[in-house]
Amino acid sequence: MNVKGAKEESIQTQLERSRAVRANIKKLYIYFVLALIVIIFSVAKLGQVEMFGRGHFLSPDSIINLLRTAVPILTLSGAFTLLMISGYIDLSVGSAMSLSAVVFALMILNGFPFLPALVITLILGIAMGALNGLLVMKLRITPVIATLVTLSLFKGIALLIVPDGLSAIKGSAEKVMPPWINDYARKNVLLGMPWAFFVALAVIAILVIVQRKTILGKYAAAMGGNRTAAELSGINVVKMGWLLYIIVGFFAVLAGVARASYMSLGDPLSGDGMELDNIIAVLLGGTAFSGGEGSVAKTIIGALIIMCVTTGLMTVIPAYWQTVAKGSVLLFAVVLNHLLIREKVKA
Amino acid sequence: MSVETKQARKITVGGRMSNESFLTLFMIGVLVVLFGIACAIVPNFYLPQNMLNLITNNWYIIILGIGVTFLLITGNFDMSVGGVIALTGVLSVYFCQGANVSRNVLANGLGLPYGLALGLALLCAMGIGAINAFFIARLKVPSIIVTLGTMMLARGIAQVITRGAQRNTSLPDVFGVVGNIAIQGTSIKFSVVIMVLLVVAAFIFERMTVPGRRTYLIGANAEAARLSGITVGKHITFLYLTSALLAGITGILLASEFKAGVSSRAMGYEFDALVVALLGGVSIAGGFGSVLGMFVGAVILSVVTTSATGLLLSPDWQFTLKGIVTFIAILAQRFALDRRKG
Prior knowledge:
Chain A has 347 residues and is an all-alpha fold. Chain A has helices at residues 2-43, 60-85, 93-109, 114-138, 143-161, 183-186, 195-213, 215-225, 227-232, 237-263, 274-284, 296-316, 322-346.
């Protein structure tokens, strides 16, 4: 009897220990993954490849380049995480980015100064987020379907704004795109990084605080965990969901402006696939599929992993491997996520 | 209590149409009205050839729509169909191309016999379906995330095989037959015949077979379905395999029609398939919808896009139009059902 009890106890402690190990792995694995990927690409003899003749994966130039191209996803993925924690999804972020890039470039081309153009585009972003919120929260259309509809809508409008025969809003013989459109996302401000990067950092910092320390973060997790319970305990789910969609729309537009400034043109297809990159980043960051838990900070690491993988791969294998690589990373993230979260579901 | 029973009786009273038939009829009404308007304002819209084209030019979306409709009824998405089309098309070409015939890498294939090549390509398509099913039915991952991943995977493999472009040389003559033969004396292609056969088969499956009815039960309440002895996972697996197979058939027919395996083929078809299902009244919320409705939805979408083209609107309008039409359709259907209840 006694022996049996001791045995049970030891099994209990073993179980507990394995659970603790698993929790630790869950907490830290993403940093290892990022480190591993960076190491692999640094060790691999990239110097032999034409494109990387300039230097090492870890050379300052290539790091600056990587971070500059990562600005849009860094700006957006934090807000996207908050939305997914609350159990909703926004597939229209890519199209929202494209549309804002087009609108922003159009205004700059027509002589608007930087700040007014930025403010008007951001208002557009709030409107787009509010439209998603209206469809999902008020009209109760399934999030996936509602945001797919707006995906098509925003993309269509972006394509319509661009004049026939042109592929993007860009300078032409009659109208020259002011060269300072680049300043926001390319001009060196500090340590080789442009303004857009520091804005992205600030956004990340704010969203990490929002998620951890404010009531919005708690409510988002409560909604994702159990919507009915959240509703019954007095959270205004509709209002919160609406707010989260608006936040996502706002930052999607900020990302779109950074993209437009980086490319110095408004490409109506420039945001394509952004929703997938964000989903990958969020899943790599360990946010549960169905919401309820997750971390903005880890999503950012996930976003860096994607950028490292895509940039790193671009230097070793032809570009047409890119899609396969991303798809595989997504499915890999799903498996990883499943393995790490399974424990919680069982418990 | 008495109110409840009264309501229950009201629903079971014989002769009253089911909500599904009501919505299908409602959408047919919408179609007729739209068709009338289109005839009035779009030049040459009323010509018989154009009416025929409305259906025959959309055979691929309708075939895809069958699989997507059944999945949507069970509450699952399949966004991988476009990628599967590209993959199967490219693979069937790759398998058929002669081996070692040219120094151009894209002109060399495996040189397999035609039938074997098609069979293998379809198997690969079902492989993608199997991946979908594994993640969704076994690991319980939301279908939208998984199928977006397999969409990239399938299209990515197609891009790798074609090096981001297409394969269209050193194909046997037989390859171009299936997609291009037409019924003698008409412009109706073999692909359209296949589409009609598949729709009829799907209709019979939906209405008259046990698995067909189970699909609805799973969609209405998966837990209740499981408790009443339906192996939900198996059924979902079956539906994903079917959807991938249908996409595979479409991919082969399209590859044959153009006699080329293009890696960017069928971009966005997954969205169109979803749109026609939604237009036809399929609801993801509660085991609701029908193949017939999807067919009507496909014709509605066809009327709208053809009118846009007929009015000489720029092709860029297509995205916006599809978005608006879907949105209106969802709201109109909900309104119609609410009114009917009240």
